[in-house]
Model the fold of this input.
Amino acid sequence: MRSFLRLSIGLLTLVLVALAAYLGPAHLQIRGIEPRLPTEQDLRTLATIPNGPVSIGIARSSSQSGPDRDLNHSIVVIEWPDGRQFMIDAAMDKPTSEAFGELIAKLSPGMGPVKFSGTAPEFLKDRTTKVAGVGVTHLHEDHVQGIDAFCAKRGKGARSYQTLWQANEHNLHTKESARQLESSCLESVVIQGEGLLTHSDFPGLGIVGLGGHTPGSTLFAAYVDETLWLMSGDITNVKSKLLSNTGKGWLYSTIFVPENTARTESLRLWLSAMDQRSDIEVIVAHDFAAALDSGMLPLER
Ligand SMILES: [Zn+2]
Done:
């Protein structure tokens, strides 16, 4: 009996040590990434920049229904007066969406099959070649993999815009998407600094390093139709949880995706305070219904 107990304790210790070796570096890294956030007034300056964007819409590339939530993979497209487009996130192609959905169903029982609606170029159609800029809210497969389908139609000529953190700080879950983006059709532009970042290529577009969910998690902001839209990626997966300041749970934030939970909480509070304003809408990447409730126009195939 004694030796059985010793063996069990030994095995448990081994598992814990292996888990710590596997996840520890990612946890240490993300705890050190807390870039300065802009104020609401900083973000409102985007409304005053000449030749800013003129339209914004959201496509639902795929979706999966569950008992207490729907998981959607979306693509946001912003248009400038000269017809140039900026795409935020690329979702996934059909086989990758289905494989990703199977993994999600294993991790969260009750999730139904994936309903695939289309890749970015299938929603963008003729506008695909007018996409001059691409940004991703973070380097996870479900936001980046679709870049291949996009590049197959677009060819060279568009640039990707990243913060220093998204370009340089990777962990076990972001390495592969970082490599995919690097070897894609997109020419890389890395913007230095923290707080509200901008680039002359897209006047009125704001880029903010967030951290929290991944080292390179990034917010994109744009003022269109008298509304300041804040694309917050996966700081929460559901808009209502952002507004109620509810985290993703210990298992998710510790084991599945190493998060800086103090940071994700301060980001939830920062974002939900701004969402209270009548002319500011936070768009949560996986919550398509909430984006439509906010008044964002759906892109149809
Ligand atoms: Zn995601």
